[in-house]
């Protein structure tokens, strides 16, 4: 009766298994270390974002107007300037201005939920292609409103992550129309002029 010969395992397969095992251990080790190091920071950023959108209200997005001073007879005797600023509802802001902002700053404004992941992917690819040089932004109008109201102008990963967490919450609370209104009223046109009405009167 013939006995079956055991097939010898190929040395190549043995080496390949060892290499794959080492690579898996490295990935798990590096991933675990990164998670252990980064998780507390991510948790802090998340908590900052939660505190921000929990306490936000509409008045946060409005600047101080000029203070008018009156005498006891009710006559105006002076103005303490806070810059040229008048807050307008979106219905009073030209549709041409609204469309220009959307076309220039955030063409997918009406289709995303605060964060445009397609634009972020495009910006990331451009960043890699140009060897670490920022050639295009990925911030939506919603993110810009958040940055201008609550955060700094620094280009940091922390600021970007905070924007990404807050943006969907801002859209849920206020909606597109109100966010565009905040944006239009918050833009600066030099000489202390903000919004749409004040610069149109000044210039």
How many helices? The count is 6
Largest sheet: 2 strands, antiparallel
The whole-number mean of residue pLDDT values reads: 82
Strand fraction? 5-15%
Write down how many β-strands occur, each being a DSSP E stretch of 2 or more residues.
4
Helical proportion? 55-70%
What overall form do the CA principal axes indicate?
elongated
Span from first to last CA?
106 Å
Order of helices and strands: HEEEHHHHEH
Derived from helix and strand composition plus strand pairing, the structural class reads mainly alpha
Low-confidence stretches: none
Strand order of the largest sheet: 1-2
Structural summary, described in words:
The protein has six helices and four strands; from the N terminus they run H-E-E-E-H-H-H-H-E-H. It has helices at 11-55, 95-105, 117-129, 141-150, 157-186, 197-202; strands spanning 67-70, 76-80, 84-85, 193-194. It has a two-stranded antiparallel ribbon with strand order 1-2. It has a two-stranded parallel ribbon with strand order 3-4. A hairpin with a 5-residue loop joins strand 1 and strand 2. Helix 1 packs parallel to helix 5 and helix 4 crosses helix 5 (157-186). The radius of gyration is 27 Å and the shape is elongated. The model has no long low-confidence stretch (mean pLDDT 82).
Record keyword descriptors for this entry:
two-stranded antiparallel sheet, mainly alpha, 4 strands, 203 residues, 6 helices, two-stranded parallel sheet
